[in-house]
Amino acid sequence: MKVITIIPARANSKSIRNKNIKKFNGFPLIKYSIDYSIKSSLVNRTIVSTESQKIANIALKYGAEVPFLRPKKLALDYVQDYPVIKHALLKIEKLYDEKFDIIILLRPTSPLRPSNLIKKSINLLKKTPQATSVRAVTIANQHPFRQWIQDEEYIYAYQHKKFLGKEENYNLPRQKLPKSYWQTGDIETIRRSTIIKGSISGNKILPLVIRNDQVHDIDSLSDFKKAMSKLK
What we know:
By secondary structure, the protein is of the alpha/beta class. It has 2 domains: about 5-135 and about 185-230, Spore Coat Polysaccharide Biosynthesis Protein SpsA, Chain A (Alpha-Beta Complex), CATH 3.90.550; about 145-175, no CATH class. The protein is about 25% helix and about 20% strand. The chain has helices at about 30-40, 55-60, 80-95, 115-125, 190-195, 220-230; strands at about 5-10, 25, 25-30, 45-50, 100-105, 135-140, 150, 155, 180-190, 205-210. The strands form 3 sheets. The protein has a 6-stranded mixed sheet, with helices on both faces. A two-stranded antiparallel sheet has the order 2-3. It has a two-stranded antiparallel ribbon with strand order 7-8. The longest helix is centred in the middle third of the chain and has 16 residues, at about 80-95. The radius of gyration is 19 Å and the shape is globular. About 35% of the residues are buried.
């Protein structure tokens, strides 16, 4: 089984300028994801996908491979993960003339991941052949059945298809609420077949549950400060 890690790191960031290479405890943020991948004996290649030569040089310095620069059209604000990961996977397979069975997606914005997430997620896929991917999650602080969406004048309660036509979801007692998770961004582990079929995760996603106090996803300056405080 061949495993590749893809770390997406575009240059432009609206929340924090140059977020992916901002110094975190003296090192560029991206270094922590590169180190995490390289330290895993299960990973065959650690690739950084970026359109920036500056980020590419930093990634190379810390041991990642950057055999190509991402097309500018795949580094725009609203580009989702799927086209970026698919582009990187197919480009690498063509350049190196080899295929990878498992893709590990590590975002630079999670520098304080719990240990062994790569091994745990791969083991989950091995135990469940029908699963399309694994996604890191944590127990949600607020249940979605308590959330409301406004459509013009009125608000409407969130409804899951399994509960349609039954009880008013928002009135269910806490004990009857189904388990609800929030995606953490720490890791996504995806079968190659899932990517090839047109999805970043597929429809049979296994949860890799992380404790809430272990989650440090940096998307703002306040997140950055909290993560630094935790590290210290």
